[in-house]
Write a structure and sequence with these properties.
2 domains, 5-stranded antiparallel beta sheet, 21% helix, alpha+beta, single chain, Gyrase A, domain 2, Alpha-Beta Plaits
Length: 194
Amino acid sequence: MAELLRTHPLEGWSAAFERLPDTVRITVEPYVAMVDVRLGPVPAEASTALGVDLPTAPNTWVPAGTGRAVWLGPDEWLVSSTTETPEELEARVRAAVLPLGGSAADVSAQRIGLRLTGARVRDVLAKGCSIDLHPRVFGRGRSAQTALGQAGVVLLALSDAGDNHGVLVRSSFAGYLAEWLLDAALEFTPTPTR
């Protein structure tokens, strides 16, 4: 049986992203395994079984092995891994939370990731996002489910300086968001001289 090749929905935007200046860098992140976890109050044994303390503070994320655990709600988290297949991650997480009354569902194909870096990244994001992105408020370890342009995203602060953010967007909105980001970054892109 032939294996299907995965094509990234933003494959065609890589060249346009590469033309951006260093003050606004946009990088398409490779696919990662993601599992949506539902679990009531987090018992101590969940952390041991999962190998990570799920964040219980609203709008935060923590490193989880080679991925992240992102707080999505009082009883919901997004757990990712860059080294496990979606099936492996789902099976591992399900085995950990099922005995505790929780559930785990593979949502790997639901979202794709972008990395935005550079000194003007906050300015670009502020054009379409109404949350306060100042590093004192939105520093490393913070997250938010918000709108960017008109696309729903999960925004992750990856540095305390405010110059490194991760954006998780639904695959079906990836093209729209890529176009929006390129347009929002246009004023920071130098015009070629003749």
